[in-house]
Amino acid sequence: MRFLTVFLLAVVLAACNSAPKTLGTFLSSPKGPNFAPLETLHPEHAMVYIYRPANSWGNQEMQAPSFFVGGNRVFGLKSGSYSWLEMEPGEFDFYARRPLTLLHLTTVFELPLKVAANEVYYFRYSESQPLDLALMGWEGLDLMADGPLQQVPEDFAREEIRLLKLDSAGVYLRGDKEKAPRWKPFSSVEEVSDR
What we know:
Elements: H1 2-17, E1 46-52, H2 56-59, E2 66-69, E3 72-76, E4 81-87, E5 90-100, E6 103-115, E7 120-125, E8 145-146, E9 149-151, H3 154-161, E10 165-166, E11 171-173, E12 179-180, H4 189-193
């Protein structure tokens, strides 16, 4: 009996650690400002925008999918919202999981995200209305995509994203792949004193 209690406690704690944290649009619609492009804090970084056009299917969600970079949850993405990542150049494991109450059970996409210095990327996320890239005439472009996540050209993205709301602040990924608030200075006290 003691083993069963300890086992159940361990399962509950593990579930709480990876518990979905973003309510769906049905329960809480995005309330932030409309899209406005940002400059990167560091000139060698890339800016990645991820947006999700509103539709009736997405607007009925109780919980929004969570997005992860390298195993760390970076944000949830509601229908009718966008977010961003500022990242150093490189390749990252980027994926989303769909929640079911306290657990993330279904992986929606897994994309090896490759970003270059001083570039801007736009990704459109839509499970119910993905774009036909060939029909759009983009088959010759070198665009990343996996399932409902599709990189789209900037001019197309800017038309769709302009009326979407920022639901929660984006994420600034430091060089050590850790999340940090965007307002945090780029150089730490130790780095400045070493110069």
